[in-house]
Amino acid sequence: MAETEDFVGQEPHPDEKLETRTRRVLSNTYQKLIQSVFLDDSIPNGVKYLMLLTLIEKPSLDAIYIGLFGSTGAGKSSLINAIIQQAMFLPVSGESLCTSCIVQVRSGCCEQYEAKIHLLSDQEWKEELKTLTKLLHRTEELGGEEVDAWDRDEVMEEAIWKLQILYGNGAEKKNYEELLRAKPKGKIPTSRIITLKAEEAGELSVKLDPYIRTKRRDWLGESAETQIWPLIKHVEVTLPKSELIPEGVVLVDIPGTGDFNSKRDEMWKKTIDKCSVIWVISDIERVSGGRAHEDLLNESIKACQRGFCRDIALVVTKTDKLYLPEYLRERKVGNQAIQSQREAVLERNEMIKIQRNRILKEKLKRKLPVDCKVLEASNVVYTVSAQEYWQQALLTEEETEIPKLREYIRKRLLDKKRRMVTKYVTEAFGLLLLTDSFSCTDNLPSEYLHMSGLRGFVEEKIQLLEKAIDRCFAPIVQPLQEGVRNARTSYRRILGACLVRSRGNRGFHQTLKAVCLKNGIYASRTLARIDLNAAITQPIYDQIDPVFGGIFRAGTPTNSALIPHIDAFKHSLQEKMMEIGIRNGRKHDSYKKSFLIQEISAILGGLEEHILRKKRKIYESLTTSVQNDLKPCYEEAAQITGKKACERMKDIIRRGVDRQVAEGMFERAQERMQHQFQQLKNGITEKVKSSIATMLTLASSQGDGLYKELADVKSEYKEMEKLHRSLREVAENAVLRQGMQDFLLRMSPSKAGPPRT
Question: At a CB cut-off of 8 Å and minimum separation 6, what does 213 contact?
Fold first, then answer.
């Protein structure tokens, strides 16, 4: 059995200590000021509001979502079980079982194990029910040959299965109105949330098992829990506090293809996009190719473009599997003899790492900016074995690479915590500086003049920022235009490939109908995802992807990178504050200067999060625009029944797309993306203007007759000053450590080996 000594009893990181001390200081300050500030009617609400925002208890940090993204049976659940040190906690896919929904696993402060099963709302299920019945009740006009083809259609089988599970045998023969009146077999809580609790992991696992595993359709047994499986939206599992999965980390088991239900499919996309790390999970036997593996990689790369993802890794599972005679026969590595199964496994795993690392990096380089963080990693491939982690018959615990993934998780958490603590301490220190200045009455009449000049300077810099953002967004226009031209010349070929099946229409009719009912998109747990809108806009994305990624990167400053422009704007304002402090030299101005410097950093630091949230809408505007334009054509095709219905549906789709392209569909998509960029620019400047205006109002409040003898917070101020100094020291020490590591690697490459990622 694997041990956990590496993590249990581990000393808190310096950033974690800083956060704890900061919270204590702010709590004390809040208690002191609550009487003298917040209960005083003479102080404007705006001043109170700003102080309250800074002093109230803040969440530790937004969770880091690590998405385990893979096909059914790839080993996602087994990998999570190994990471959290619970052998059979999440159900493992087998001959008759598979994880059927998104499952999130985190640790918290609770003492029990807890799971919350979130169900579709009544309205969400009604929408899916209407679609399912439309799929099933169009058979009456078909000939016998087409009915046989329908019987083999995966879409129809799944629709029948869902209705039978929820309403019983014969449900597939009822219409929509009859099923609305029918009573589901399982009990559905009015809250649409089922909460399970247990003292032990095994106990919760048994309770949870029926909800998150799907039985095969020929499975005869049926529990009360499985009777509501079609209604399950997603599952949240919370473990007691654990060093193996620190608080603030969420591991997400994400099915590989999305879901037929629109709400579940939208959640599937949003879950992928909010992951800051994506592990593409592929077992050793499927990693060398196949459409499913490529689709997963492409979807993960898109998440880097449109979402929060900053890091992608390929995690190859079940790497203990190897048939030695076959491996030795095909082996082409050196002349050294292989002495055992273990040596063969380790050698094969190392080869897989080298090969897949090179292939994945080449693929990422074609799509992402050259200075993207993920491209800096020395290794983006891990070879793991959950089974060997428990058994250790062939491999040691370290060789299974489960501990390496845990360290990966901890490192990402500490990186994010460091950024959060920096922002938290900086903002709080600035406000305490200002609070102390309220007790100073020196030179109050001159305050208005200083702030008036500062406001003029800020307005001028905001205008320059607007121009810089325009220059930043300008490079997207040419690739957009080229992409539109490419899309116009290739859409028929791409659409034809989506609509033609090598085995003809046999078994494809209902799939195509499902595509039309869902406005060009079909996702199931068993078939490859179909998205006609994304397919015909892909030539545009092929052109814009490198430029789009460059706009939203946070690396080397360039004219096309947005965040560095905002950083430059921040530094120009802070330099102006420094000049004011140096010129006047008064204690009062020194406090105000320090507050303004810290607050500018806090305000503009939060702007990056706002930009990242908006970029998804910008990136998806192309496919959204095309989908909206083609909606009438999809709706018309979905109504087709009778003989040769499949070919007639295809014909309607082809003619509809031709008509929309002739009327400028791709050009409209381009205009809508450019409009989204313009809206982002307007949103940035409005947010900056509003936040800085409020900040200057607070800083000049004393000049408006707001002098107050506030509670004595000098001790808290001194403590926060120490914390701020400690923060700088932590950052400086980190730079020194990194510099020393780089030096050692340069001087002794044979001994140092590749850096851990």
Answer: 91, 97, 98, 99, 100
